[in-house]
Design goal:
The chain is an alpha/beta fold and 416 residues long. 41% of the residues lie in helices and 14% in strands. The protein is built from 17 helices and 15 strands. Strands 5-2-1-6-7-8-9 form a 7-stranded parallel β-sheet, sandwiched between helices. The protein has a 6-stranded parallel β-sheet with strand order 12-11-10-13-14-15. The longest helix is centred in the N-terminal third of the chain and has 41 residues. The relative contact order is 0.11.
């Protein structure tokens, strides 16, 4: 009897998965196209401005959309607004009270038009009445948002748009885009040509590659080192080899000794925001062990980075020791020497990632890290010219992406 129940349950689960992968995307896409058609028919154009909303929740990834938003603030053709959502509590599976995310945007943009749950109600049901023409999303993970802010709901009254929260370096499985978020997305501004081609091959919805705004304002500089070498450590949080795993547990206890042996190094740590939470959830570290770990490193003169925007830190970095992270391309453009510690990935790197990795020094263990640091300290940097050439090529490709996206919205808004 139990065996039969298990078989029925397993069968139902397979049917559910099949419907989710093969049937639901087609249905969602059909409904999205139908909604867009109605929007175009019923649209009442405002000749003075195009009203655009940006749903924001994480200051750490805002730099990808910031150039577009800030350019809209300077353009009289646009009326940009920030729709601030409280951070998501993974334990209670609910939104927290407003905190640092609201303070970040209020402090950064003192004259911005900002909407919160105070104006839009706790469930954000008031967003529809605001009359937005376009609404941009910060991330493609809808589980962190209230139900009424999912793309399938919003596309009924505004065109949904997305700029990736990170530059894509892998040829992800096509199932990555078979989610309800993408199924109801009006316009996907892809981060690179490979992503555009991959996404366009599986959808009837719109996509464009106009450059990646997250790279359009990256400063060009040489190493700033004078009396110290500034080192940034950015390990991943998960040990899965999908994107090369994490060396956090391999190297976390090595930096105190490095600092003691080399006072010349200014060491800044910036583990992924989920690192310590994941360590507690998996039982690898307790809360007390984490507190003691942070305390021990700080006492040794090591800094834990608290900048909301990692680019502010990267721009003051000479050498970055890192597992896989989308920030490596920003580091490359900033003239940072990259020591790559990531392992072999399960996913297939795209052409751009391979070009970047060819400009990195690869460390398979801590002795390799020390050896590379010693070489850099002694001005032995044979990959310098190769980095400069690649950085300039990438910089040109993405230089005017913010302007290009604004122009695409204007064209779409006034199209018949």
């Amino acid at each position: 009897m139990k065996k039969n129940k298990f078989m029925v349950k397993n069968y139902k689960q397979k049917i559910k998965e099949w419907l989710y992968v093969y049937v639901l995307p087609e249905f969602d896409c059909f409904m999205a196209l139908r909604a867009v058609k109605k929007l175009n028919i019923n649209r009442k154009r405002n000749d003075t401005s195009i009203k655009v909303g940006f749903i924001v929740q994480m200051p750490e990834v805002w730099d990808k959309e910031a150039p577009v938003y800030e350019l809209m603030m300077e353009d009289k053709q646009f009326d940009p607004w920030l729709i601030v959502i409280p951070s998501y509590n993974a334990t209670s599976k609910s939104l927290n009270a407003y905190g640092r995310e609201l303070l970040f945007f209020q402090n950064k943009y003192q004259f911005a038009n900002i909407l919160t749950s105070r104006q839009l109600h706790e469930d954000f049901s008031g967003l529809k009445a605001q009359g937005f023409d376009y609404i941009f999303y910060q991330r493609c993970w809808e589980s962190y948002l209230p139900d009424l802010l999912h793309t399938s709901k919003v596309i009924k009254y505004a065109k949904t748009c997305y700029i990736p929260y990170g530059f894509h370096f892998f040829n992800e499985s096509l199932t990555y885009y078979k989610t309800r978020f993408f199924n109801s997305l009006y316009m996907f501004y892809c981060s690179n040509q490979q992503q555009f081609e991959r996404y366009s091959s599986i959808t009837k919805l719109k996509a464009a590659y106009l450059g990646f705004p997250g790279l359009c304002r990256t400063p060009n500089r040489s190493i700033l080192r004078q009396n110290e070498l500034r080192i940034l450590w950015t390990p991943r949080w998960e040990t899965s080899l999908r994107y090369g795993g994490s060396t956090f547990y391999d190297y976390k206890d090595c930096f105190v000794t490095l600092k003691q042996n080399s006072p010349y190094y200014k060491i800044v740590m910036r583990p992924h925001p989920l690192t310590f939470r994941h360590a507690i959830q998996t039982g690898k570290m307790s809360r007390n062990e984490i507190d003691e770990y942070i305390k021990k490193n700080k006492q040794a003169g090591i800094i834990f980075d608290e900048n909301e925007d990692i680019k502010d830190t990267v721009e003051k970095t000479d050498v970055m020791i890192t597992d896989f992270s989308s920030v490596i391309i920003s580091a490359l453009l900033c003239g940072v020497v990259i020591i790559y510690t990531g392992k072999k990935t399960d996913e297939t790197p795209n052409v751009i990632l391979q070009q970047v990795l060819d400009c990195c020094y690869h460390a398979n263990n801590w002795d390799d890290v020390i050896s590379i640091l010693d070489a850099i300290k002694n001005n032995n940097d044979p990959l310098c010219e190769q980095r400069v050439i690649l950085a300039e090529m990438i910089r040109k490709e993405h230089a005017n992406s913010d302007k290009a996206i604004l122009m695409s919205i204007i064209r779409d808004y006034y199209s018949r």
